[in-house]
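Below is a filled-in request sheet from our internal design queue. Each sheet records the structural input a requester submitted and the sequence that came back. We keep these sheets so that new team members can see what a complete request looks like end to end.

REQUESTER: design group, bay 2
PRIORITY: normal
MODE: inverse folding
CHAIN LENGTH: 76
BACKBONE (tokenized):
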């Protein structure tokens, strides 16, 4: 069974949400903060790689314009 929750680096260790503040032209060295509490989460290149390791665009979630959205299962 595929895990339906993201964790690791993209989950804020301070407030436990997954809401990233990602600038439109973010590059690998862009500093990313939590959109809820404003704390530093990491560099965009690191966070994007972590998201990919957890299924990325082909998993349970999609990442678009800084928003992570749960994908509907086919037939659901």
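RETURNED SEQUENCE:
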């Amino acid at each position: 069974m595929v895990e339906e929750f993201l964790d690791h680096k993209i989950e804020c260790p301070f407030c436990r949400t997954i809401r990233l503040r990602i600038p439109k032209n973010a590059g690998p060295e862009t500093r990313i903060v939590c959109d809820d509490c404003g704390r530093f989460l990491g560099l965009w290149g690191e966070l994007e790689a972590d998201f990919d390791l957890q299924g990325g665009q082909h998993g349970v979630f999609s990442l678009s314009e800084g928003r992570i959205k749960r994908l509907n299962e086919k037939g659901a």
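SHEET NOTES:
- The mean pLDDT is 76.
- The chain has one helix and five strands.
FILED BY: M.R.
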